[in-house]
Design goal:
heterodimer, A: about 120 residues, mainly alpha, about 80% helix, B: mainly alpha, two-stranded antiparallel sheet, 4 helices, 2 strands, about 5% strand
């Protein structure tokens, strides 16, 4: 009897798709907030801004939101970058590129959770 | 012994420069680089936040520098291009049926733009209230 091993594709696709949705629906607004509003517009009282952002990151909703956004964006981007290297005929030595990008995303995802828990 | 002799079509590494459809495809793939950069900027901000008030404020100052503003402008344009391409591809893999007839791709796309506008306005409105100390 043939033993079939489970494909990792559904997992990768779920993370890629989730990241694509986060990038399409939420990221433009987030870039406006963290890239323009926080550093350029609401910067007259940085100490108050620090307390606001800390309060958000310490809350359950804020923590889950930040973990989801950061890790899903990283997986989405990594999947596309690895695929595009393949399209550009760059296969890299061994499995270096997938290990570097998927592994790096996983490490950054766990680091995000670690930082949020230690706040 | 393996007698398989598959036909492998030759493809040059710069195949995507051949026509505008391929170029647009590569431009879409490039948007992921900015997604990666922005995710790392957020992680950097979180790291600065965990270091206390002064480290968070120095992160904010770096974000206000002209170079980082340019990075965010490019990132915003790139992400909006991703949004357009994502809404184009969703109807191709996600079929919506109403009364046993498939909803037209243009309607699926339009409903996504509507949802996108609502979500963006809600997030920005919440941020304005929140940043004003509400």
């Amino acid at each position: 009897m043939t033993q079939y091993s489970r494909s990792h594709h559904p997992l990768i696709w779920a993370l890629f798709g989730g990241g694509g949705v986060v990038l399409a629906f939420l990221t433009p607004a987030l870039i406006i907030i963290t890239g323009f509003m926080m550093p350029l517009i609401y910067n007259d009282d940085p100490a108050a801004l620090y307390r606001h952002v800390l309060g958000f990151a310490q809350s359950w909703t804020g923590g889950v939101f930040l973990t989801a956004v950061i890790s899903l964006l990283l997986f989405h981007a990594s999947h596309r970058i690895v695929d595009t290297f393949h399209d550009l005929h760059v296969s890299g030595p061994g499995h270096l590129l997938p290990i570097l990008f998927y592994g790096g995303s996983a490490v950054c995802g766990f680091f995000t959770i670690f930082l949020l828990v230690s706040l | 012994m393996n007698n398989r002799k598959p036909y492998l079509q030759e493809q040059s590494a710069n195949w995507w420069t051949e026509n505008s459809f391929y170029k647009r495809y590569m431009l879409r793939e490039l948007t992921s680089v900015f997604a990666l950069v922005y995710a790392l900027i957020l992680l950097w901000g979180l790291y600065a936040l965990s270091g206390g008030e002064s480290s968070f404020i120095s992160w904010l100052r770096i974000m206000a520098s002209p170079g980082m503003v340019i990075v965010h402008v490019i990132g915003l344009i790139s992400t909006l291009f991703h949004t357009v391409t994502w809404f184009e591809l969703t109807p191709k893999i996600f079929y919506v049926y109403l009364n046993e007839t498939k909803l037209a791709d243009s309607k699926v796309a339009a409903s996504q733009y509507g949802l996108f506008a609502i979500v963006t306005l809600i997030i920005l409105a919440l941020a304005v209230v929140w940043l004003n100390g509400g």
